[in-house]
Structures are given as C-alpha cells and as structure tokens.
C-alpha cells in the first residue's frame, strides 16, 4: 500500500481479498484527524509524509549538515538528504580507495560528491513544485494475479452456492480495493527551495551513522537536497473533513477482519479452501511488492530532478585514522576564516584536552583557504613525557593529511590506481608507487 503512488494505475489493482486489514487500518487511520475516528484510531495523528515513511530512515534518521561557507548548521535535514546520502554512500562503497598513512588505527571512510547543475521547475503560487511521473512497470501484471485469483474464488463459491464464502471473499475484495484506490490517489510532491539571486560555491559536510560525506557544489543545488521536502498530496475529495474518506476505508478494513473471522466457519469446507487460496495468492503478491526496495523506487521516481551527479563524480576514500581524515577534509571543504573554519574543525575533531586544543590551534593558524597547505613538523611547546607520543602522532597525521590534499588537488583520479585499493598491498608500498 505504501508504494501505490509510484506506479501508474496501481491504485486500481487492489481489488483482491487480502489479510492484514486490521493492521493497515490502524496504520493509515492515523491520517484521519476527525474526532469521529479518534476512538477507532487512538494513536497520534500523522501527516501524509509520516504515514508513508517519507520522513527519513528507521527512527526518522536523517543526516546532519554543516555549510563550510555560510556556517549554517542543521542537526536534522530531511528525507531527500537521507535518500541522497544512502545512494552516494552505496556508489562510493563499490570502489573505496585506501589512503596510505604513517599511523593506522580505526579506518574511517569518506565520500566526496561533486554536484552538477539542475533546472528548477517553473515557479507557481505555491513555489517551485515538482510532481514526478508514476513509473510503468511489469509489476502491475504480477499484481493482476491476486485480483484474478480472488475473482475466480468468489465466482466458484457462488456457482457452488456457498454464499458465505462468496460474500466474504467479495467483502475482502471491496474493502482492500477501496483502501488501495483512496490511498493510491495521492501524488508524490517535491517542494523545492527558492534559491538566492546569486548562487555561490557552498561546499558542505554531511554525517550520518558515523559516515562522512563532502558535497562540492553550488548553494542552489545543495539547498534543494538539505532543505527540500517530499510528501504525498491527496486530492480535495480525500482531504474533505480531515481525511474522512480515509477513516471510512480503514473502518471497512477493520469490519472485514471481524466479519470474516466470525462467519468463515459457517462456509463449507470447499468454500473455506477457496477463501484460503485467495488469501495465499494475495500473500504472495504482497510479499513480492514488499521485497522491492522502497527507497530505490523513490530515487528512481525522482530521477535527476533533485540532484545531478555525473559519471565519476562520486569518490570514496578510506583513511587509516580519524585525525588525518579531519584535517584533510578541512582542506577539501575550504571554509572561510571568519570563525567557520574553527566551527567545522571542532565538529570533525571534537577533542578537548589541552594538547588537542594546542594542536588544533596550530592547524588553524597555518590554514589559509587560498594558499597551499603546509604542516609543522612538531609543536613549538614541549609536551610531557607521557603525552609526547600522542602529540607526535598528531603532527604526523597532519603531514599525511597535507600529502593527501596536495595529491587530490593535482588530480583526484590519481588515487584510482590499483595500488591504493583497499584490497591492494601495504600502504607504505602504495605511497612509494604514488610518489
């Protein structure tokens, strides 16, 4: 039911006897916020994008965001950013490049994405809005099987004069079909953000589940991913009286369960077998539809209207320790020096001990967004004996980060050498070959 809006004509293919009506009624009944339905569906009222799981991943998980130019921080973005993050992370995971490092601890992976330009839809009264066209799929042919199975079971029950089985199968077809038609009448709606008159380069940082993603692109394109929204828009007749029609369909699904539960024992054995056969056909169909990745369907529906990522625009790198990664990404993002660089560096490297504070101060003092980065060999202060090894590692990691960035700036594709693959040889040998 959650994917009925993604296929053209799918809303007409729900007229089959299906189990699970009570569970569907409890879930979709939360759309109806009229007091009439509150007693039937006592859970909290939800918006369409929440009911149809368009509010992030499991647990409403969404990536956070930090702009390296404007300093804008978003602790939670939205569903479009979630889809984008997972898609780019998956593409990068197919070809991660292992970056050589002097010191190895826990590897950390970074995805760098270069965005291309997109064309916004024409601005209307409600802003820049895009309605993706439904997909045409052979899945609709498969969806016709449970419809034919339920129809055949109902007709055979009628011919054998088993009216209990006949009417109960027919009730299931009507209840499920009406709910599928109503809920499938919605359209996918993407709300774009009106970009500023002058769009500047706005490299940004996104993090989710411990993974790091760097987005390189214009403010116009990045803002659509992190600020845009996707939802389901229903016609006026469905939204009438706070989704009264949805509440009525869900009530019919609840009645289907109760009526079938109490009256199917009155049918003959042959009628009960036909009833279970219709359930079995619909169960197979629902299992197949549930196996299709809903997030992939959403991304396929959006196409390249929300983001435009060209070929070879997604790079994945695996650093051997977090410190090298944090400093390298500081250079890649090129934040401005008006406090944003400090904010970004603290987010990437939140260590607060005195040694770390002094080290980060040295890095930021040497940082210049318009100059080639350089690294100090060691601190200008003398660390204690027990902390000397830690401090030495900091500056060694800094030198590795500068080495990475200088090579990356020359030619990002130079890291695609097979000697640098995570499945390749030792980091020291790879570094010598790269040099």
Number of strands: 11
Distance between the termini: 56 Å
Number of DSSP helical runs: 16
Strand arrangement, major sheet = 2-1-8-9-4-11-3
Question: What is the alpha-carbon Rg in Å?
Answer: 28 Å
Largest sheet: 7 strands, mixed
Along the chain, the helix and strand elements come as HHHEEHEEEEHHEEEHEHHHHEHHHHH
The coarse overall form would be elongated
Structural class, please?
alpha+beta
Helix content: 40-55%
Mean pLDDT metric = 87
- Which spans of ≥5 residues are poorly predicted at pLDDT below 50? 416-435
Hey, roughly how much beta strand do the residues contain?
5-15%
Structure described in brief:
Keywords: Membrane, Transmembrane, Transmembrane helix. It is built from 16 helices and eleven strands.
What do these coordinates show?
By secondary structure, the protein is α+β, with helices and mostly antiparallel strands. The protein has a domain of 215 residues. 47% of the residues lie in helices and 11% in strands. The protein has a seven-stranded mixed sheet, sandwiched between helices. The chain has a four-stranded antiparallel sheet with strand order 5-6-7-10. Strand 1 and strand 2 form a beta hairpin. The longest helix has 23 residues. Keywords: Membrane, Transmembrane, Transmembrane helix.
